Amino acid sequence: MRIAIFGKQFSPSFLPHCLFLCNELRSRGAEIIIYSDFYDFIQSLDSDAIKVDGTFNSRAELSDINVFISVGGDGTFLEAVTLVRDASIPILGINSGRLGFLADVAKEEIESALSYIFSGNLKYKQLDLLCLETDAGLFGDLNFALNELTIQKRDSASMVTIHTYLNGELLNSYWADGLIIATPTGSTAYSLSVGGPIIHPSSKSFIINPIAPHNLTVRPIIVPNDMQITLKVEGRADKFLASLDSRSVVFEDSIELRVKKADFSISVVDLPGISYNQTLRNKLMWGADKRNY
């Protein structure tokens, strides 16, 4: 089995768990390639820490990979998605921090997760992405997001007006600080922090969620993800900020933004014993009241 490991930096206290991951993979006969910057970081903590079969820097070097392991938080997982893209490589997210919806394997669960991967019965689930199309080619070939597209003003003074259309028909002109178009996966990210609903990952939908709307009656709306959402932005300034997950660009008010479901999905290792309901309870501490026990 050929395994790719991707990561950024982590607390030194997580180093033993990272070494355990690599040693377990080697003991099971896996061929390991690791993201070169991540390898250098681990080496800076312990120069004799790990032995790997090679390093990689780009998507082009990910040939014949069976599982892509992301070590870090949800932000690291989102960066992993930009490398895997449409290669249909299952991703496993190992959480080196505290909260993680995408990186949902705790350090104590690494051994059991690897046992499942090498069991020969690997199953995975598909997560939908959104795609942004513009005549200006914003974001180049990274014009997709697993969590959300966010449109925001660049200054702290005036609101923006975002004219929003569904399949060409006007839905609303949002007077707000910005607008979020979120996937079901992204419903527990930025959209949740501004009052959006939580949507099950298997739901085929998008959330349209304004940021600090001027009209108090304006609320988030859920729409089918087979619709095209068109955005036209105007304001006192003539330049605004667009973000796809953690990647941002500045765009002019003359640019029309068209959002639709991406034509590929992301495969995520579906570990037994870990359900979305359980993740919500654990990560959001639902029911964490002593009166329930």
SSE layout:
Layout: E1 2-7, H1 15-27, E2 31-35, H2 36-45, E3 54-56, E4 67-72, H3 74-84, E5 91-95, H4 110-117, E6 124-133, E7 144-145, E8 148-152, E9 160-166, E10 169-176, E11 178-182, H5 190-193, E12 205-211, E13 221-224, E14 229-235, E15 239-244, E16 247-252, E17 257-269, H6 276-283
Parallel strand pairs: 1-2, 1-4, 2-3, 4-5
Antiparallel strand pairs: 6-7, 6-17, 8-11, 8-15, 9-10, 9-14, 11-12, 12-13, 14-17, 15-16
The percent range for strand residues is 35-45%
Structural class: alpha+beta
**Between the first and last Cα atoms, what is the distance in angstroms?**
44 Å
In the sheet with the most strands, the strands line up as: 7-6-17-14-9-10
Radius of gyration: 21 Å
Any idea what the shape is? Answer: globular
Rounded mean pLDDT is: 93
Pattern of helices and strands: EHEHEEHEHEEEEEEHEEEEEEH
Number of helices: 6
How many individual β-strands?
A: 17
Helix percent band: 10-25%
| Uncertain residue segments | none
Largest beta sheet, briefly?
A: 6 strands, antiparallel
Brief summary of the model shown:
With 293 residues, the protein is of the alpha+beta class. The chain contains six helices and 17 strands. The longest helix is centred in the first third of the chain and has 13 residues, at 15-27.
Describe the protein in words.
The chain has 293 residues and is of the alpha+beta class. Helices cover 18% and strands 36% of the residues. It contains 6 helices and 17 strands. The protein has helices at residues 15-27, 36-45, 74-84, 110-117, 190-193, 276-283, and strands at 2-7, 31-35, 54-56, 67-72, 91-95, 124-133, 144-145, 148-152, 160-166, 169-176, 178-182, 205-211, 221-224, 229-235, 239-244, 247-252, 257-269. The strands form 3 sheets. The chain has a 6-stranded antiparallel sheet with strand order 7-6-17-14-9-10, with helices on one face. A hairpin with a 2-residue loop joins strand 15 (239-244) and strand 16. It is globular and about 60 Å long.
